[in-house]
Description:
Elements: E1 5-8, E2 14-15, E3 18-19, H1 22-37, H2 44-50, H3 57-71, E4 76-77, E5 98-99, H4 102-105, E6 108-112, E7 115-116, H5 119-126, H6 138-143, H7 147-161, H8 168-179, H9 184-200, H10 204-218, H11 228-244, H12 248-260, H13 265-270, H14 272-292, H15 298-321, H16 325-344, H17 356-377, H18 385-394, H19 405-409, H20 416-422, H21 439-451, H22 459-477, H23 481-494, H24 499-509, H25 514-526
Parallel strand pairs: 1-6
Antiparallel strand pairs: 1-2, 2-3, 4-5, 6-7
Helix pairs in contact: 1-3, 1-5, 7-8, 7-9, 8-9, 9-10, 9-11, 10-11, 11-12, 11-14, 14-15, 14-16, 15-16, 16-17, 17-18, 18-22, 21-22, 22-23, 22-24, 23-25
Amino acid sequence: MTRKIQIDLGRPLLVNGIPARNQSVWLLLRVWYAQKTGEVFVPASSLQARYPGSTNLRMFVSRAFRDFATWGIEVGWGNSIDLPPALLNSSCRSQGPFWITQAQADMVLCRRGEEPASLDLVASFLGLKGYIPRRADLLQYVTQDGDYWNHLTQAMRLARDGMTTTGMSWAASYRAADRTALDDFQRALAILKESLAWRRHGNVRRSEAALKRLERILQSEFVGPSMPTLSAMASVASAWNSYARGEIRQAHAGLDRLASDPLLAPVIRYNPRVRFEYLNLRALLHKGSALEDKNADRVSRMNEAEKALSALSEALQAAYEADSVEAAQDVAANIGWTLWLFWQQRLLAVLNDQDVQTVQGLSLRWLGLSEWICDRFGVGGSSAWNTVFVLRIARGHCDDKSGDLKRFQAQSPLPVGKMLEAVKPFQAAFSRAKGYDDWSNVAAFTLEENDAGRVFYGAHQVANLLLEFVWFRTHSEGLSHQVFAAVERLARVVQDLGSGQRRFFRESLKTLPEPLQIVAKDAAITG
């Protein structure tokens, strides 16, 4: 009598009553499922997509086949399905594809606890189709006391407004939502939003810690497949964190894994919010390659620049499709700033021959759209990047590095009036109340908002605002007590930034008149 292989899909996973490796059970049931449904072959890429953390596929497969031998079942590989596995070349085994004969498949019996496992339940374990886990009775959603939704809504508002310097207020609200959640969906939603908020506020370590908590929920074979949108967004969030740490290759790999995952890839296509985040990060990765890979040939860098702007164009469409004004203003600003940077390095064939004022006008119009959205919809209040970008583009062709005050002041940044003309029909967002009668007043007004505690911009944004204030106030009024004080403050703020950011400001300070350079060096030494 043929011996049966008893697989119990409960927790822990059991094969013939003995705890078994999840990956080995997954591969066996994947080929079993392929045989049962007429799919027959399972490509090796399916393993990589299901277990992206397994970098050594050969070891993964070797362990699985040792388990198969222990369980007394034969699984084949390669395209010669008519040959017994004993005659196949084991050195090529990890390359797949994998298969099982009908006779061997008939030996496998699946159950969950005392009940036989249906084909749908096996498919959900494999991550091949949606399976709705036990959820809270939906009537409980509307009859609960409202604590969860209260905490979640408060956290979202506080995180968006940037109302605290430490983030503890909104973080505590997200944790409270987690504690009062009725089911895995509510819990996963709160944790994901907490992770995204930490990332937006520049704390990658805490963002990643929240994702680890989320992973413990989503990695369940019965919960993860039922929450594809949350799982996909978590994948994008993890890739964003890799990017923030400077791990560019890992960020690319994270997006590649998501795009090749048979369960999650459709989310990118059909969910515009996830598509926006995916494309926005893709654009930044291509942008980085275009601007920073100095060893690449010019054609390759121009190709990366085109990919970046194509991804940004699609991201803008996705933002409006998602009805997300916050996403729309973010990508509009990114387009404006990216156009300017690419033109500076002559990376866009369509703009390379344009004069500086033409490109300034085009770039500033995109930033104008972003600011207009922020002004009309009340979003983006915790960021000063649009102001920094506008100021930097306005003086973008001024490149005197002589250190001489008179030559510095002889430069001609774009006048405020011409900027307001260029950004039409979005000029209303740049009001005189915000300082838009003089460029140094714009920087001074934005710094005052931060210093008065009405907003919190963080050290990197403050450093950029100080640099722009110093540049424009020196250009318009020469050396003054205000300028020297701002340079000293800038030198102190820069000490708390990352090495790459400090390098940028050191180089930028070299473009200022020599007396300011000396003050900056002295302030850096004295701390």
